[in-house]
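In response to reviewer comment 3 from the previous cycle, which asked for concrete evidence that the modeling workflow produces usable outputs, we include below a single protein chain processed end to end. The sequence was submitted unchanged, and the resulting structure tokens are shown without manual editing.
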Amino acid sequence: MRMLTKKIRFVAVALGVVAGALMASAGPGAPVSQAATPADGAAAAASRIYGVEIVKEGGGVGDLQTQSVRCPQRKVPIGGGAEADFGHTPWGHDIQLVSSAPLMESGQPVGWRASAVKFVSPGMTLTTYAVCAYPLSGYRIVRNPVTPSPYGKLTTLSCPAGKVALGGGGEAIGADSWLSKSYPTPVSGTSQPTQWALGTAGWDTTTAVVHAVCTDPVHALTVTRFNAASESPYGGLLTCPAGTVVAGGGASANGPAASLISSRPAKASETGSRDGWWAQGSDNLQSSHIDLYVMCTEPV
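The workflow returned the following structure tokens.
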């Protein structure tokens, strides 16, 4: 069964790459992609993102052990992500992310943090990513109070009026709890997203904390979503349009017991000369699907 799963995983990843780069049909859904205009329609006044830079930190961790990475001096996190791994193709709930959220020190955003948990014996590695840039106009990070999150419930956090959600994340709190979704919303029409959504799951009572990276409307921001399906684990990547760089992204692993294994910026080896966002999820079912999101902008 393990060997079959590995072969299926490769197919899912390959389809994800094609889906993102060429916007071809690869899964049950269709891509939704648009150049998102500022929420207030004032494109000329929209903020540009300067100095986008991706930093990461990786290594062996224990269950629920927090790993963090700091942005370079004078830069702040506009997004981030993480990937958990234990050296084998995961199946079901072998391994999953528990948190992926901004790192705050003395009330100031300085990077990104993440944690994960596994239910198998091999050791676990975790890699945490921060998408950093110089502070944008109206930049602030908001979070909701610890909120009860019944099984299958989506928790959303809105940015203040007139702001857009450039990034976000959160954490699942509770025994044997994990993340299943973390993505910008709504993604429709030509409006920039104004909320961040978080999905959690677990075997017992779960609570959720959502963080949103809010800014004034952003110039030349594109938001792309694609739905991919395969045997578990399922996922892939979406690449940014030519001439743009990744500003953030997210994923929604769907299914009755879905979990996120990875949601992070793509590696150069996966995209060549183009930026993108990689995500992977798992479920107890043999097949399911995942929504992939990538947010891109013009480099400055």
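DSSP finds two helices and 20 strands in the chain. We consider this sufficient to address the reviewer's concern, and the full set will be provided in the supplementary archive.
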